[in-house]
Amino acid sequence: MKTSKIYVCAFIALSTLGLNAQDTHTIFPLLPPSVSTVPSNGDVNPYGVAFAPKNMPTNGVLQPGDILVSNFNNSNNLQGTGSTILRVDKNGKTSTFYTSKVHGLTAAIGILSDGLVFLGNLPTADGTAATVQPGQLSVIDPNGNFLGTFGTAVTIDGPWGMAVYDNGNGVTGTAHIWVSNVLNGVISRFDVNYNAAVVTASVFVLAAGFNHRTDPAALVLGPSGMAYSASNDTLYVASSTDNAVYEIPTAATAHGTVSASLLFEDLTHLHGPLDLTILPNGHFVIANSDGSNVDPNQPSELVEYMPNGTFLNQMPVDPNNGGAFGVQINNLGWGTFRMAAVDDNSNTLNIWTTVAQ
Amino acid sequence: MISKPTRLFFATVFLCAAAHASTVFNFDSDGLGTATGFTDKVNGISATFSSTGDPGGFVVYQSIFETLTGNVLGDPGPAGLDNLALTINFSNNLAAVVLDFATADFGTPSPFTLNAYQNSKLVGSATSTGEFLNGFTFPEGEISFSGATFNELVLSSTSMDFAVDNISVISAAPEPAAGVLLAGGVMILLGIFVSNKQ
After folding, report:
1. What is the pLDDT of residue B173?
2. Domain that holds residue B7
3. What is the distance, to the nearest Å, from the Cα of residue B109 to the centroid of all Cα atoms in its chain?
4. ipTM value for the complex
5. pLDDT tens for each residue of chain A, 357 residues long
6. pLDDT of amino acid B15
7. pLDDT at B101 over 60
8. Which CATH number fits domain A31-355: 2.120.10.30, 2.40.50.140, 2.40.40.20, 1.10.260.40?
9. Are residues B114 and B98 in contact, defined by beta-carbon separation less than 8 angstroms?
10. Considering only CA atoms, which of A202, A167, A300, A186 is closest in space to residue A235?
11. CB spacing of A18 vs B81 below 8 angstroms
12. Nearest-5° angle of CA A207, CA A208, CA A212?
């Protein structure tokens, strides 16, 4: 009887302190700092990275916060022949999310709030620049099923990088999807409408004239990774040919082709920049593919710049050249973010969680 | 025998206290990790905090701000969602509210909006923008509303996330404690009036 009273008193005391209402989510298991990106079919050379939106539905295979990684090479390490998207879940467990009938999956990968995946590819017949093809822009559902394609011969010609600005609520929405085309130097904008039943898109050339070329080692060079800033309606484009970053104003509001201008060129720290992302504090992080302006003393660098293009710092993801390709962040709020970057040399995805100041 | 000036002084103090009696929701008695929806009760007034991202749209955590102190309520909560509005439903009709907020901006501070409702009908709104304070990372500000009776607030910002604290409300009808103060003040004044008559 006495003991019961003590329990009741203890319960009341804990309730008063609010302890019974506390969140019971555990922090474990922590996401491992690095996972292999090699799927069961042996594809290698991971390129694109995309985070699944936080507000996407949870009734499919793809879950909020998952990371998708696209593979560019097949198991024979031939460029433009990879066909798989790897899924990394919140515990770091990997699985093959999608196996494509078209090959050479690039860094042009993005996910809408309803879980639709937009994916570009640039195939080759034999892994060489002599056989590159224009590729396509595919749409895949959250269960890894192919739905169809978007684009025209001009707006999809070697889709190499992608940026997404989505106002969707997890079921319906509108989104802008920008695609950089490395075979014709064009940046396309797809204006997408989607709901539970249908997805539609219109497309036009937002900017053109970016330098581009094929390369015996890097395969192709040109407009690559992109990031969109809603605060100034500007699209930023990394050029692996010019070792520079360009800006395109009115990127979401323009209704026709606009001019891109040089934001900064940096022949000291940029070495074939392939992907680009914007941190919560507005800084850029750029991944150097080392496909041009290569420097053996600065291999596979992730480079941080201030919004005006002032160099801040850099960090290699691999001790050898040619390792850094896709890099993206997932903003967790109040400056905290998760950053994922591939290492093409070790075929791994590195994952960090840190705070921008 | 208490002198007349002293009685007058106490009457004034009681009446002023009654006029300014407010109730403050500051989350300091909520456990860290308490997530929406939940209800806090202070001075007989209940406030229920909720969002479209519930369960877990907003969460109570320790302040990283200057003007928001102790525990604060902000997003993202355990649900991991951003760009949410915070709804507060009160058990009483209220006449005024003032609260502190912070927005998750590194650059230009985003506007913070308060919409006031009486039985689901919009009765007024206010907008405020925070300022960066020395030594602190995120902009902080204060927002207030009065001029119409309300029993629901919807707080939102164009910033990805925000936090609130020190939600001070004044009842449209005097609260019990304020009523006691008011009655005390009136009785003293009546006493002074009667003694003057005699």
Report:
1. 76
2. 1-21+174-198
3. 22
4. 0.78
5. 344 443 333 333 333 334 444 556 677 777 778 999 999 999 999 999 999 999 999 999 999 999 999 999 999 999 999 999 999 998 899 999 999 999 999 999 999 999 999 999 999 999 999 999 999 999 999 999 999 999 999 999 999 999 999 999 999 999 999 999 999 999 999 999 999 999 999 999 999 999 999 999 999 999 999 999 998 999 999 999 999 999 999 999 999 999 999 999 999 999 999 999 999 999 999 999 999 999 999 999 999 999 999 999 999 999 999 999 999 999 999 999 999 999 999 999 999 999 997
6. 46
7. yes
8. 2.120.10.30
9. no
10. A186
11. no
12. 130
Domain count, chain B: 2
| C-alpha distance from residue A165 to each of A106, A175, A179, A328, B104 (Å) | 19, 6, 12, 14, 19
pLDDT, averaged across chain B: 87
Residue among B34, B27, B71 nearest A25 (CA): B34
B67 in the same domain as B1: no
CA of B77 to nearest chain A CA: how many angstroms apart?
Answer: 10
Q: How far apart are CA A272 and CA A251, in angstroms?
A: 24
Q: Work out whether strand B59-62 and strand B45-50 pair parallel, antiparallel, or are unpaired.
A: unpaired
Are B117 and B154 in the same domain? yes
A299 versus B174: the higher-pLDDT residue is: A299
Structure tokens at A109: 């990968």
Chain B residues inside the 8 Å CB shell of A171:
none
Q: A23, B76: Cβ pair inside 8 Å?
A: no
The average pLDDT across B14-30 equals: 73
- Measured CA to CA, the distance from residue B198 to residue B191 in angstroms comes to 11
Among residues A217, A57, A334, which one has the least CA distance to residue B65?
Answer: A334
pTM assigned to the model: 0.85
Strands annotated E in A54-158: 67-73, 84-88, 94-99, 105-111, 117-121, 137-140, 146-150
- pLDDT band per the 50, 70, 90 thresholds, residue B16: very low
**Cα–Cα distance between A147 and A142 in angstroms, integer?**
10
**Is A18 part of the contact surface with chain B (CB cutoff 8 Å)?**
yes
Q: Are residues B97 and B168 in the same domain?
A: yes
CA separation (Å) from A109 to A50, A139, A159, A254?
A: 6, 10, 9, 23
Based on the fold, state whether residues B109 and B168 are members of the same structural domain: yes
| Contact predicate A138/A119, CB 8 Å | yes
B13 and B86 in a single domain? The answer is: no
**Site from B27, B29, B34, B157 to mutate, A interface, most A CB atoms within 10 angstroms:** B34
User: What is the torsional sign of CA A157, A162, A166, A169?
Assistant: positive
Nearest CA in chain B to A21: B34
| Cβ-Cβ contacts under 8 Å, A64 against chain B | 80
What residues of B are in contact with residue A65 (Cβ under 8 Å)?
80
Q: Decide if A333 contacts B76 (C-beta within 8 A).
A: yes
Q: Looking at the structure, tell me whether residues B89 and B138 fall in a common domain.
A: yes
